Amino acid sequence: MPTEILDITLDFLPAESVVSFALTCRGLHAKYSVRNQILDSAARESLLLLLEKDAAALYYCYHCSSLHKWHPTSTTSRASTAYKLKFHTARLALHGRIRGPAHGPELEKLHMDHAVTLGSRNITIKESWAAKVIDGELFLRAVWNYHQGAGGAKTLGRWVEHDADRFICNHVKGSRLLEFPGAEGLDLSSVERLAGPVRSCPICYTDFQMEVRGDEWDESESESEDDEEAQRGSGGWSINVTKWVRLGACESPLDAHWQTLASQSAHGLECEPRNSSCEAGEIRHRWVDGKQKPSAYQGRFVEAGCLQVPHY
């Protein structure tokens, strides 16, 4: 291509595209030297994102506006039951699935299974996380199982009451949602099995469902037909919490999916809350059956009274 035509073409391109083009070979670099281009912060970010696509071993850091090498060992924190997923790790895993394994770790690196037993209370806590890419977006599913052995339903209820608020998100007060119909507050002895409806946070992109059930009762182990505690949950009690989180395309930590997830309320958000664009129950449905859109999603938004900050 004649140089004159190339010059005219490059005049129509933004500065970051010209710099990227100049880096393709020595001859072009000499003519369209990077030193002759002054990039503002937005153009610099665009340039580094362009380079990131071609340099599989590098990823763009939004915090320092630089390229860094990524390591195959980049995973979630597994030191405790607290699952911690950093934005750049999620973004790398998404790139690894979409662009190829050279661009990021396997999606399975975001999975985690953890169990701990609280001996003094005879309570076992199991936690499991899984990740999935649906239509170019990253989704997570988390499952918690709180189980207590024979008897002690009230003890389990009290334990979950103090710990349930961390289950869902920063906005939903989970302990308020565990007061199931038919039970006296968190006394599980009057509940055999109750699967709550699919609920959705109105602020961030999180759906969740809670279930209470008593383990099967063996009639031969009961000494009295009137022993209600033996007949209900004699083998133990379980509370299951499942949540589904939509993290989006992970293009920026400031996009709606990440910004709402990190917020404490809808106040001060630079984006619209989830309930303005995503229906209740939609995230769970996309995880379970992402290919078919139903006439109506099964789910409902959490009432304001069950939010950490009621007004949104």
Automatic annotation (TrEMBL):
Species this chain originates from: Parascedosporium putredinis
Top-level taxon: Eukaryota
Acidic residues compositional bias, start-end: 216-229
Region (Disordered): 215-235
Lineage: Eukaryota, Fungi, Dikarya, Ascomycota, Pezizomycotina
UniProt name for this protein: F-box domain-containing protein
